[in-house]
Amino acid sequence: MHTHLPGPERLLGLCRMTFIADERFQSFYVESSGVWTLQIKYVQARDAGIYECQVSTEPKISARVHLHVVVPRTELIGDSDRYVKAGSAVILRCVVRGALEPPSYIIWYHGTQQIFTESRRGWKTQLDRGAPDLDGDIHSTIGSLIIESTRKKDSGNYSCSPSNSPPITVSLHVINGRLTTERPACKTRQSGVRCTCVCACVCVCSLAKR
């Protein structure tokens, strides 16, 4: 049995012997059924390719199988930086796409600490399997962290960590007092220039009319 992968052809096994150094690969034979099997444990993206089983008969016979490896991905729904006023509600969402099976769980972390909603009043998590996301994909899974009333100390990085795909992080900024889309014009030493700060992070400057 050998394989055609990106790169040179490699011999994986002969009879009951496996030649590849990767211990995830194993070739074995079931006498009762007369079936040869190539087993790959903990499949990785680099394992994708064409695998061929050859039988040493005359004429030689063979069968090919093209292995496609699906790699799930985790994405945020919304911006990676969220700004909210203290006391307001916020929902952080992530979506798992490209998985053959939905994740069995999604764990949320605040920094490095796992979030246990049972001990936090007004906090809860939600897992929607097979529900259409914003792109209409019905095979995705959406995980939500809901905070009914945010406080300043709730600021920080929140990580969505599904069981079957990589984690992803969103930054939450809880601002005390009034949260507006514009701030008063900033002062500048250059005469005739007026600056407006938007979302407390971006400043746009323009020449003022005289």
TrEMBL record:
GO terms for cellular component: neuron projection membrane. It comes from the Eukaryota. Residues 72-171 form the Ig-like domain. It holds the Pfam family Ig_3. One of its GO terms (biological process) is synapse organization. This is Ig-like domain-containing protein. The lineage of its organism: Eukaryota, Metazoa, Ecdysozoa, Arthropoda, Hexapoda.
